[in-house]
Amino acid sequence: MDTIDEVHWLNAEERQAWLTLASMTTRLLPALDSQLRRDAGISHFEYTVMAALSEAPERTLRMSDLAVLAEGSLSRLSQVVSRLEKKHWVRRTPDPADGRYTLAILTDTGWDKVVATAPGHVSEVRRLVFDPLTKAQTGQLTTIGKRIVRAIDPDDRCLGEDT
Asked: Model pTM?
């Protein structure tokens, strides 16, 4: 651990960038969560889980893979999937290819919920994130975000190609 004399302190520009990033990350997910709860009666994490399943082949993923895509722990995912099962939006079944795994499957009712919820969510994402940016800034945001995520987790499987 660095001593106070060894710390490479942030300069004024870096400090401003850091405070802005911290403020944005602290506020964005709660704002999206608020819109989803108000308009669709679900949390942002629940929507993220269902949206990931909606994009998967046969609307099915192993719970462990779904946890990675949803950026949540397996225990948190299990609790959320239990709630989604009670609403008949998701069901779980043992993986026939390897019984050590459990599959999460988006039901037809869950698909309908995602389809009904997506327009409002996308509109809010567009309003909060993309409308304030130029096309060039959107590209920069992607590059910057990937670099930061890669610094946090060099093995991250969700980023796609390196930038």
From this structure: 0.87
For residue 137, the tally of other CB atoms under 10 A from its CB is: 12
Helix (H, G, I), strand (E, B) or coil at 112: helix
Q: Which two tokens stand for residue 5?
A: 């004399």
Tell me the torsion sign for CA atoms 62, 90, 123, 129: negative
The rounded distance, in Å, linking the Cα atoms of 24 and 36 is 18
pLDDT tens, 78-132?
Answer: 999 999 999 999 999 999 999 899 999 999 999 999 999 999 999 999 999 999 9
Q: What 3-state class would DSSP assign to 99?
A: coil
Within 10 angstroms of residue 23's Cβ, the number of other Cβ atoms is: 10
The full DSSP string for 8-60 is ----HHHHHHHHHHHHHHHHHHHHHHHHHHHHHS--HHHHHHHHHHHHSGGGE
